[in-house]
Design goal:
This protein is an alpha/beta fold. It is built from twelve helices and eight strands. The chain has an eight-stranded parallel beta barrel, surrounded by five helices.
């Protein structure tokens, strides 16, 4: 399934999201100041949000940074929907929920956020669903009672997210091609964490790919953390990853 024109036109920089997996607002702001003109967006996850709270998210968005709020909301439909509305009011570019929360939860979330943004003249953030964490493999699924293989489980959850009106999913690049084929809409996006440049280790991620392989497989946005933030020369690390991405985009 070909990507829509808007996604095909994205350059490598716009597709690169840096994970701010740090423990303080000061460290996060330093990284945003250093890398903000070189990457497309920043991801704020559970550690940083718990440390610095919504104040950091709002100030980063107001400073012009695109923020992917990675809190993986998973609760009863009303609770998730109301939390999602607050995320939208912070000015985030994108946030996620857990697809395992079910169709009703995802539909209610999309409806409440869209209605609030229209009523308050806000830009609606992209709403995406986490399928199966890239730190999980078939053995992990079996231990919690999911007997399907990882790829089939991810595909099923992605189809549910698409039917619920969401903009896309978080998924490994290993499943991106099938997601694009099965989702039923050309606008459906795949955001892929667990990206490691050729020279990096896989750390605690199990289902990983290089930037080149991920883009060739159909991922739209790539999330990279430690290979950039732990580098002694972060800008050089960004340039190296963008180089891999540009090569893949030229081939595509």
């Amino acid at each position: 399934m070909p990507a829509p024109q808007e996604q095909r036109d994205l350059d490598a920089k716009s597709r690169l999201i840096v994970a701010l997996d740090v423990d303080s607002a000061s460290k996060a702001r330093s990284l945003m100041d250093e890398l903000g003109s070189s990457v497309g967006a920043f991801k704020i996850g559970l550690q940083l949000f718990t440390s610095a709270g919504p104040v950091l998210v709002r100030s980063a968005a107001e400073a012009g940074h695109r923020i992917f709020l990675d809190l993986k909301f998973h609760d009863i439909p009303n609770t998730v929907a109301m939390a999602a509305v607050e995320a939208a009011k912070l000015g985030v570019w994108m946030f996620n929920v857990h697809a395992l929360g079910g169709g009703e939860m995802m539909k209610r979330t999309f409806f409440e956020v869209a209605e609030t943004c229209e009523r308050e003249n806000l830009s609606r953030p992209k709403i995406i669903a986490v399928t199966i964490l890239t730190s999980s493999d078939a053995n992990d699924l079996n231990r919690i009672g999911i007997e399907q293989d990882v790829e089939s489980t991810v595909a099923n959850l992605a189809r549910l997210a698409a039917r619920s009106g969401l903009d896309g999913v978080v998924a490994s690049a290993r499943e991106a091609e099938r997601i694009k084929r099965d989702a039923g809409t050309q606008d459906f996006i795949v955001v892929t964490p667990g990206i490691r440049p050729t020279s990096a280790t896989s750390d605690d991620q199990k289902r990983v790919m290089t930037p080149t392989d991920a883009l060739r497989s159909g991922s739209d946005y790539l999330v990279v953390g430690r290979p950039i933030t732990d580098s002694k020369d972060r800008l050089n690390a960004v340039d190296a990853i963008l180089g891999e991405m540009n090569a893949a985009l030229e081939i595509n």
